[in-house]
Amino acid sequence: MASREDFGSWLGGSPSGDVGGRDERLGLPASGRGSFAPVSRRLGALVVDWLLSMLVGYLLFDGAPMATLGIFAVENLVLVSTAGATVGHRLFGLRVRTEGREALMMGFLRGAIRTVLLVLVVPAAIWDADGRGMHDKAARTIIVRS
Question: Where do transmembrane segments lie in this chain (predicted)?
Answer without folding.
Answer: 43-61, 67-87, 108-127
